[in-house]
Write a structure and sequence with these properties.
213 residues, 10 helices, Arc Repressor Mutant, subunit A, Tetracycline Repressor, domain 2, 2 domains, homodimer, DNA-binding, mainly alpha
DNA sequence: GTCTATAACGCGATAGAC
DNA sequence: GTCTATCGCGTTATAGAC
């Protein structure tokens, strides 16, 4: 009995490890090739496993893709906690922009998979996760609206402000190739990344009414 | 001879008409399915032509894709003339933002194909068109830098300001599905589009130092 | 749980009659 | 310039030995 449990544990650990490995590899391949352009063979090679094993852990190409998308959504939701329950819009907004930019610089693949999926009309995400996003965005918008009511920021439309922050920060992940080309073929250095953060925070904060930035 | 010329003209007209029809159809299919996900069959159906005819006009799937990308780049370059040779940053910037937003609202497919291509690392665009973009962006950046030197706007980094404008305006094309979901499942109305334009122009203009907007 | 071999299928591209 | 029929290849997914 003890041995059986141990074997079960060992198998569970192997399963967890392989699953993570596959999802990481898949995230990169789906990001760079799109859903249709990605091949199970390329994902298998990058995960350093035989192709058949990928199908053992994820029944279909589509199921693996869904797992990748859910993983990304989870990461984003966790990264946005800096935004919650704050009475200081200046700090909230700059912290949010800063952490979203960081995520774009450090983990661009997830953002790209998401962008691809939305561009194509969310054929796989379907309504469930999109409805979840709707609720989540609604909360943020209410908080921004409150700041405006309290006269802490100018009365900008909260939704369009949020889209602006998302679009601008995710641009550095999704369009990193273009950014690189326009930067003379070299990826942004750390000091350039800091300059981006400063510039974006500055424009947004002045944009919502702060004059001392 | 006259008849032969007439026949040649007629054929040229047919060729032009079919070519346009195919490019329009291809733009939509490539936007919604990605390069790999698109099928020549679907493009043919949407263009209302037999599949073999598509191959008659465009030798390969790739050649047709390149034609679509070039078409888009041309449209964007034409739409940015409002930006040139102006000493009035306030007017230049709002005109540019307004016309880019208009393009996103009215012709989202082109923007989506471009986004897809960049996300995947511009495997087809290659260096030619990207270098062209580099030059083009450089000119705009110089003009913005001049405004800053002359004290007409705050000394923001011109590149990151441009990326912000591109990202924000193209978001309404590339992520139109997400915008729609977050808007309760309905596309933005004309008055909402106007509100977007007002909000974006306001934030950007205040962001670069104008306090009277 | 791992891996090789292969079945089943869809797609890009073309040949060749009209 | 148009269209039908088809070839050949690459892909997903699985069967079955280990």
């Amino acid at each position: 009995m003890a041995i059986s449990a141990t074997n079960g544990d060992r198998k569970a650990i192997v399963r967890q490890k392989n699953t993570d490995q596959i999802i990481r590899a898949a995230e990169e391949v789906y990001a760079l090739k799109g859903f249709a352009g990605a091949t199970m063979q390329e994902i298998a090679d990058k995960a350093d496993l035989p192709k058949a094993n990928i199908h053992y852990y994820f029944k279909t190409k589509r199921a693996l893709y869904v797992a990748v998308l859910e993983d990304i959504f989870k990461a984003w939701a966790e990264a946005s906690t800096t935004f919650d329950n704050s009475d200081d819009p200046k700090k909230s907004l700059s912290d949010y922009i800063t952490s979203k930019l960081q995520l774009s610089f450090d983990r661009p693949f997830g953002s790209k998979v998401w962008a691809n999926e939305i561009i194509h009309g969310a054929p796989v995400l379907g309504d469930n996760l999109m409805d979840h996003l709707h609720d989540w965005e609604g909360e943020k918008a209410i908080q921004i609206a409150k700041w405006a009511e309290d006269g802490k920021i100018l009365p900008v439309d909260p939704h369009y402000l949020l889209y602006m922050i998302w679009a601008t920060t995710q641009h550095y992940a999704d369009f990193d190739h273009q950014v690189r080309v326009l930067n003379g073929g070299k990826a942004l250095s750390q000091s350039q990344r800091n300059e981006v953060t400063k510039t974006v925070c500055g424009i947004i904060l002045r944009g919502v009414g702060f004059t001392d930035v």
